[in-house]
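[agent] plan:
  1. take the single chain provided in the ticket
  2. run structure prediction with default settings
  3. attach structure tokens to the ticket
  4. add a short note for the reviewer (M.T.)
[agent] executing step 1
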Amino acid sequence: MNHNDITVRLGCILLSLGMAWLVQPLTSPLWSALLGLTVGIGVVSLEMYLRTRPITVLLGGLAGLLAGLVAASLMGVLISLQPGLPPVAKTYLVLLILVTFGYLGMTRGAASDRWWELLTKPSKSAAGGDNRPMNLVLDTSVIIDGRIADIAETGFLSERLIIAQFILRELQHVADSPEATKRNRGRRGLDILQRLQKNKKLDTIITDMDFPNIREVDLKLIELAKQLDAKIVTNDFNLNKVAQLRGVLVLNINELANALRPVVLPGETMQVFILKEGKEYNQGVAYLDDGTMVVVDNARRFIGKAVDISVTSVLQTTAGKMIFGKLSEEARPAGERGLGDRPERPRILASTNPPTATTTPAAGTPAVSSPSELQQT
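[agent] step 2 finished; step 3 output follows
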């Protein structure tokens, strides 16, 4: 609160106090001044409350109040035309209806303040479906991740994207962080928001709806989704669980990425590059282009090489899919192996002998010894 706000509010209270002192709506000047002071404090308190609320709350409450007063006036006309009621009862009923309908209209209009955005930017609805808005509230994590912009540019998203002001403040706070990693992540998130706003295929709205009574950003996001009948788009596992417990639908980009990975069935063959050693004995580990881990049995000796494998099983985990396989030469039955597989045994046996034991074959001697000669040696 700055000095100008304090001066204006004190002026409003003193003005209300002075007007009541001069006009004296009550019989006593003291009671009149007390009334003016109460009215001034009430006006300032209402102004301080409305300052924390979006302007659409005020517009929605005003529209609801007018609608309630119009409905109450129509009912008041009907009550005044009743011949059997005494005048005092008619007056009381008309006033009661005016207060009741005005209050209900104002509260419901303020609670449904999103009507302003819905009128200014009508949402797109699916062909043949209803006209209810399909809103997606973006979380900080999914904005920094950046894949939401790539998905939007493909045209798969037809919903309205809603970005809250408190999410923007959090992104700006991350972008201003003294830590280089956080600062780069925050700036990346701001760049992604610019890409989303420039996308003509989308309706992107930045709303100033806030919930001052709620401190945590995740809980604010859940409450915003409830108010707007929206879904939350996030990568945060904890937010995903909390939102589901509170009855809010969640779209997880990581789950979408896992669902779009290519389907691999047992028995299929593929070529992979063995990158490192596995946890179990003699295992090799490779990775597909989408990051899927491939564990290959007896492939430790092929680290740094590309090999053909046969898929034996596929395991779905919370982190994604894991593919287990074995070398294609071992996946085939022994009777189906070709002659190209036979030189492998002499090469392995020869490597087990010391270098001094190996002799150069004479001219005309076959390069590969027969099994009987191997047994004699």
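[agent] step 4 note for reviewer: Residues 3-116 form one domain.
[agent] ticket updated
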